[in-house]
Amino acid sequence: SHRSSVTEEQLDPFSLVESELYILASRLRSMVVAEVPKLASAAEYFFKMGVEGKRFRPTVLLLMATALNVPIPGPDSDELVDAISTELRNRQQRIAEITEMIHVASLLHDDVLDDADTRRGIGSLNFVMGNKLAVLAGDFLLSRACVALASLKNTEVVSLLATVVEHLVTGETMQMTTTSEQRCSMEYYLQKTYYKTASLISNSCKAIALLAGQTAEVSMLAYEYGKNLGLAYQLIDDVLDFTGTSTSLGKGSLSDIRHGIVTAPILYAMEEFPQLRAVVDRGFDNPADVDLALDYL
Ligand code: GRG
Predict the structure, then answer these.
(1) How many structural domains are present in the chain?
(2) 295 is a domain residue
């Protein structure tokens, strides 16, 4: 409409960083070129054009960079200020790339652990090339991410993202090995979800702030923002697992419950209908129990 001065395009966060996401895509492809062709093609499987996923994390990180990069006022020439801000932006783009590589590495291993056959709307790497190559490709991506991380020469940032990898492993392990009490606890769910999903987003947001030269206080706010956004992202993902279709999800729906994974929608339903507890405790091995649980949602 003519009344509004803000166009839809300006409201779309992806459009603000579109050109940078394009650079990110090509850099990711070049970062995973390996000596052994089979490993290279396995590693680039999810960096191919058209099957790149939503790029949620890089988008958030680049927008965070835009919000936090304020030019330092001083007597320096415009040229020098420009050079410094370009260099800073480049380093933050590296964080976005490293974050996406860690994310994809975790997806590759996750699909092996879950024996998933689809991912991002196409066959999962384990389905196409087998479990062994999918594990190795994940390790390779992680290794390339580490080298890129080290090249930033910022020990605090290295330590943040290295800890994230431990958190991913911790969250996945917490999900795999639960007692009945833990499976039915919202506190346990939120802790697991922090490790599995929010930690990567929150710690990489903090890294963007640290590189921008922001104070510890502002960096902590960036961390808190990423943590809440990450938790919200996983909550929506968990709801979509119940409401989405294979086409909208790029994978089968109801996969959590079929794997016996209890997520927020079930936990909330259980608060209202305590009789669901017995169903949850049976572990959803029986498809009739899946239907029974769906009735309460
Ligand atoms: C090797 C780093 C590494 C970890 C191993 C398997 C494992 C430990 C961790 C798995 C963690 C995991 C799969 C968390 C789920 C996070 C999540 C919300 C995935 C979906 O992300 P989207 O929707 O996917 O952003 P796209 O495809 O759009 O990128």
Answers:
(1) 1
(2) no
